[in-house]
Structure formats: C-alpha cells, structure tokens
Amino acid sequence: MSAAIPAPAQLPFQGTAEQEQQLRALIEEKRDDKGALMPILQGAQEIYGYLPVEVQKIIAEEMDVPLEKVYGVSTFYSQFSLTPKGKHQISVCLGTACYVKGSGLVLDKLKERLEIDSGECTPDREFSLDACRCVGACGLAPVMTIGDDVYGRLTVDQVDGILEKYKQQPHA
Amino acid sequence: MSEKTKEKKMVNIKINGISFAVEEGMTILAAARQANIHIPTLCYLKEINEIGACRICVVEVKGARTLVTACVYPVSEGMEIFTNTPRVLNARRDTLKLILSDHDKECLSCVRSGSCELQRLCQEYNVDNAHEYEGDMNVFEPDCSAPHMVRDNNKCILCRRCVAACEQFQSVGVIGPNNRGFATRIGCAYDLPLGSTACVDCGQCIAVCPVGALYEKDDTEAVFEALADPEKTVFVQTAPAVRAALGEAFDYPVGTDTEGKMVAALRRLGFDGVYDTNFGADLTILEEAHEFLDRFKNGGKLPLITSCSPGWVKFCEHYFPDLTENLSSCKSPHQMQGALMKSYLAEKKGIDAKDIVTVSVMPCTAKKFERQRDDEAGTGYPDVDHVITTRELARMIRRAGIQFRELPDEAFDDPMGEYSGGGVIFGVSGGVMEAALRTAVYWITNDDTNTPVDFNDVRGMQGIKDATYTVGDVTVRVAVASGLSNARKLLNDVKSGKAQYDFIEIMGCPGGCINGGGQPQVPAEVRNFTDYREKRAKALYTIDSAAHVRKSHQNESLKKLYDEYLGEIGGEKAHHLLHTTYVKRGLYSEV
C-alpha cells in the first residue's frame, strides 16, 4: 500500500468468504445490465458496509473495467464510503441551525477524543465519525446521532460522558 | 458529389445568416467547419472524447432556451445557428476566466507556452489574468513518479482528453477523474502515483493534452552537459519517424520530411557522430526475420510478436503476461544500435566504451523507460544513455540558436547512417512487417529480383490489418495492430482461437511511431478534421519508394557489420548484444 491511501483505509480488510460469495453472485446477476457499475457498488457497500480496495479490485476484475474507473465512481458519489464504519456510527449535523449552535465544536471534540478525522473509523472499529447535513431536528440543535440514538441540545462537555456509555456496551 | 453523400439526407440550416445544406445528424461543429467557420473547442476529441464538458464551443440556436454545445449537438432542418453573438462570446470568455481562476498561470516558462490551446484561446478572446473569479485554488504536488513523464495537475483543466486517450486508444485506463466538484482531479486509482500503476509509458496522454499539465521528463540538460564534456564522445541516432514530424515544430506543413536539416542541426549541436536508427531497424529485420523463420521451421513459439515498441512490450507484460514468450527477443532498433556504438563503433574508432555517451532521438516517451530496463546493456554499459523526444530535440535546436529552416541538407555519418527503404518504414504501422516480409521472402526463395517489394495489405491507418502470403511451399499468416485497444482485441482473438497467425506486428501508438507520444503535439483543431498520421506516414513511404536499396538485407554497411564483427545472423555475439528478456508484471503491484 502506498502512503497516498488515506490512513483509515489501511485498517485490515476483514471480509469473509460468505461476503465474497454474495458479491460475486451480485456481479453475476447484474453484469450485463446497462450501467451495472453503480448498482453493483451499492450492493457491495451493503454487503461490506464500505468499499475497501479488495472489494473494488474484485469488481474491476470481474467487470473487466480498470480499477481507476471503479475508484473514480466511488469517490464521486458521497453515498459511497472507502472507510469502514464502526460498531457505533456517529453522525454530527453540520446543517445551518446546528452549526450556528456550535455543532462544529462538538465535532472537533469528537475528533480529538477519538483521534480520527471526519469520514474515518477508529482502529478498534468501535466508532466511526461523519459530518452530515440537516437531520430534520433543528429544534434540538445542535444534534448528533449514534446508531439510532439521537442526542440534542448538545454541549461540548457532554461528549465524554456519551462516548463512555457506548464504550461500556460494545454491541449497541 | 460522390455517391455516398447523395444517399445521406441533407438538411437546410443557416449559420450566422448564411444558408447551407449539410448532412442530417452531423454536429454543429462539423457543419460549421464545412462552412469554413471555426468554433473553438477544448475537451472535444473526435470519436474518443465527445462529452460536451468544457463549454467553450457554445453557440446560440434560434428557439433554444440555452446556449448549446456545438461539439455534440446535431443539426436539424431549418436550424438557425449563431456562432459569434455577444452572448456567445461572453459565455466563452466567462468559461475561460473560470478555467483560469484555478489554473497555474506560470506561462512564461511553461513547456507548452506557444503551443498551449488555452493560451491561444485567451489571446483570441482577450482574456488576461482576470481576477474576477479569484478565490480558492487547488494545489497539487506534481507527480514525477513515472519514468517518462510528469503530471502537473495545477495546470490541468479537467478536459479529460488524456483519460479518453488512455482508455479509448490504449485500453489501459490507469487515469481518470477522482472525487467531485472543486476537488476533482485526474489521477490513478487510490490516487497512487502513476509510476506504480500499469501505465505503459506510451505518452498518448501528453500528445492530446491541450495545456502544460502533462509533459515528458526533460533530458535536454543532461544531453547539453554531455556535449560540453571534453572527455566524452557523444553519438546520436534518430528514429525513422522523427524526420517526418520534427519540421512541424519549425512551422513546416504536417508530413514534411526534414531529414537533411535534422542531420545538419544535430551536427551543429556538437554531436561527434550523427547516425540513423534506420540502420538499427535494418539490423532488427535481419535478426527478427531470422528468429521468425527459425521458430516457424523448428516448431518454436508462434505467433512471433514484434518487440520494437516499448509501450506495447510493457502492455504485454502487464496485460498479457502469458504471451511474453511470443515476443521477439530482439531489442528495439535504437537499443541494438546503442549497444553497437559502444562495441563495434568504439572498436572501429578506438574509443573506450566508458567514454561514449549514446543519445537517441525518439518519437516515443516509452523509450525513456525502455533504456532503463534490465538486460539493455550489451557491453556492460547502458546501450543508450539518454532518450529525448522529437519535441525535446526541437527545444534543443531552438535553445542553441540554430536557424533550422535555413540549414543545408546534410547526410548521416557512416557506418551507421546507411539504410534501406525497409528500415525507414519502421516508423509506420505495418512497416516492420513489410520490411520483414521483404527479407523473409528473399531468404525462402533466394530470389531478389522477381519477388515483391510492396506489401500493400499491411499498409494504412486501420487499427487491425491481416494478410496471408504464400511463398514457394510456405504459407505465412500475418497481422498488424496499432493502438493498444486494437492490440488487445487482436490478441483476445488469438487467445480464444478465433484467429490464427504466425507473425504479428504491434505498435503501441495508433498508426505507429509517426503518431508517437513524443512527437510534436497536433492541436485539436487539426487533429479533429484531418488525418495528420496519413501525412506523416506518406513522408516515410516516399523515402522508401525513392530509396535505391529497399530491402534490409541489401544494406551494405550491415553486411560489413556481420562480416567484420558480429559473425552469424542470430549467432552468439548477436544474441549477446542485440537480444533481451522480458518479465511478467501484475496489474496492481502497488495497491
């Protein structure tokens, strides 16, 4: 691997034989469709949770397209992630209302505590962090979600306590 | 009017108020061209990049809600087109300003200054370094990882012409747009450096780049340094195709043969010997035709595939590693000749090989990689010390203040200046095959007077050509491909058993070396409307048909070389100096 690959992508690939079987079946099914690359990438992300290089290589080889094409498409659309998601997926709203209420500071605090950047995953794969646009709960601004849980009227001071809760329940 | 145009349905259109009848379905751009109106383009490349992305070619169409892109918009009955209204000109100007707002405007020393398509448009549209859209600019580290070229994305205008060339001409596809919006940049998968991908170094991306974002690694300084070193004897050789295109850099029409002036210029640059790679080409024919007949008669690996094109060789190693045994073991002509300069010529002239510097002027960027390959140092010293492209030679001639157009015509030095017509057509797709056939036929029949010289089936700009020749009781099936997409198609057919051949010539660049990645860039407005390759090819075929010796085996200097020095064709000494080996490469070695 080269240094050019963003650090979190270097988290070791943990795909299973079963996942690979699913992926290959999906490619087999869609291969001849017009514009098959998009639905295959979407399906692959559903199977693996993200699009690691190992998966992109299988898709490129099976579909007989250059790897660069697969990479180009997966970096074009924001729906695709090149980094794995954690057991606890944190999403901080940076929509206008949340932002003016200080969600940027909350995000900074999370980055500092988790030692990862937005769009990345912790090496133990417990937490992944993303910034998102409006979640539609502006009345609760600033808002973040962790999995299905919603936290509103956040302050920077609450961040540590909330994280602690998830560290104690590994399979939320 | 020809039969063909009569069959097509014509439509009546008006361009800038003047009526024309043009073929239905043709683009506004092509229709306007027929009416002698030039519409500027940046992203458009005929057949390979028709994406309407850059929006420089916008025109007004009566009744249309917005401006339309002339490069992809088809004409229809009654259409009224305006190419020069204030609305059109302002839109183009705005587009140029927006491009400039994220463009490294280092024009003074830019390698493309003077031949830059963006610069020319800015001049035509009176757009200076407008600060109207000043703001964020992308800053990229130039990618210098490949052996042959640099990508400086700070100058990239995202036209995607390089992407199209890599994918459509070459089916290599190692570059493409990554990310989106303002963050878009052309790069490799995982933004890996180009040097660690399965790039084949052909330089077709450089040939189509409208600006200075892509350029060959410059070796002119190193050559000037060698020329200035009193301890060194510097020998130069020029590939067949260079003479057919060098003139373009000095405003000669495309297809002008400037061999004599080129030789004179090289001598004035101070080279101690000016030799012709055509000699090496003739030599290659003897070795390769020998190898072919040997494999053909003795059950060797067939089809034999030519190995003169280093872009093709690297492509084979990456994408068809199971065919590397089919590659001829012959080095490419300039590598053979380099090895002989440091052995045969060194001996003849009484110079120590270590004091000889060999320079090759090539239409090719992949030669910069080739000279660094393993097993390309027949004497223990590198066969070739420096490779410069046709473009770099033009720059050297200018820098040295040589008035190219005023030079007399001069002849190459002996003994590596003599060549046959077979040697010179190496520069065109089909030429190696034709030259090899000329010699192979002689060897089979032992008859040089009643056997054919012209093999027209393998000539021309088609991507794939094939023919079957019967000589005596021998039937040989041959194929010729140029452009690696065509090579891929041909080889897939060979692998699947759909096609069977004994001998295949493959050139990496479409049309052969005359269209190499190191040749002077042909601006899109010429490229899109004429086949400049035909014109360059014609220059070489004209030399061939006028040559008094047209068959490689009749080259007298070559006979002397074997008599005095090499011994047998395909013999031990020849093998040691003139042949090489290949490796199998993966696709994603670095990912």
How is this structure best summarized?
Chain A is built from seven helices and five strands. The radius of gyration of chain A is 18 Å and the shape is elongated.
What do you see in this structure?
The complex is a heterodimer of chains A (172) and B (591). Helix content of chain A is 43%, strand content 12%. Chain A is of the alpha+beta class. Chain A folds into 2 domains: 7-76; 88-168, Glutaredoxin, CATH 3.40.30. In chain A, strand 2 (120-121) and strand 3 form a beta hairpin. In chain A, helix 1 (17-30) packs antiparallel against helix 2 (37-48). The longest helix of chain A has 14 residues, at 17-30. Chain A is elongated, with a radius of gyration of 18 Å. Chain A starts with 16 loop residues before the first helix and ends with a helix. The model of chain A is unreliable at 1-9 (pLDDT under 50). Chain B folds into 3 domains: 3-99, Roll (Ubiquitin-like (UB roll)); 129-216, 2-Layer Sandwich (Alpha-Beta Plaits), CATH 3.30.70.20; 220-578, Rossmann fold, CATH 3.40.50.1780. Chain B has a 5-stranded mixed beta sheet with strand order 2-1-5-3-4, with helices on both faces. At the A-B interface, helix 3 and helix 4 of A face strand 7 of B.
Q: Count of helices of chain A?
A: 7
Q: Distance between termini of chain B?
A: 56 Å
Order of helices and strands of chain A: HHHHEHHEEEEH
Q: Count helical runs of chain B.
A: 20
Topology, pairings included?
The complex is a heterodimer of chains A (172) and B (591).
Chain A: H1 17-30, H2 37-48, H3 53-63, H4 67-76, E1 88-93, H5 96-100, H6 103-114, E2 120-121, E3 127-132, E4 144-146, E5 149-151, H7 159-168
Helix pairs in contact in A: 1-2, 1-3, 2-3, 3-4
Chain B: H1 3-7, E1 10-15, E2 18-23, H2 28-34, E3 58-61, E4 68-69, E5 80-82, H3 86-100, H4 117-124, E6 149-151, H5 161-169, E7 176-178, E8 185-187, H6 204-208, E9 214-216, H7 220-228, E10 233-238, H8 259-269, E11 273-276, H9 277-297, E12 304-305, H10 310-319, H11 333-349, E13 356-362, H12 366-370, E14 386-389, H13 390-399, H14 421-424, H15 431-445, E15 464-471, E16 474-482, H16 484-496, E17 503-507, H17 524-527, H18 532-546, H19 556-566, H20 572-578
Parallel strand pairs in B: 1-5, 10-11, 10-13, 12-17, 13-14, 16-17
Antiparallel strand pairs in B: 1-2, 3-4, 3-5, 6-9, 7-8, 15-16
Helix pairs in contact in B: 9-11, 9-15
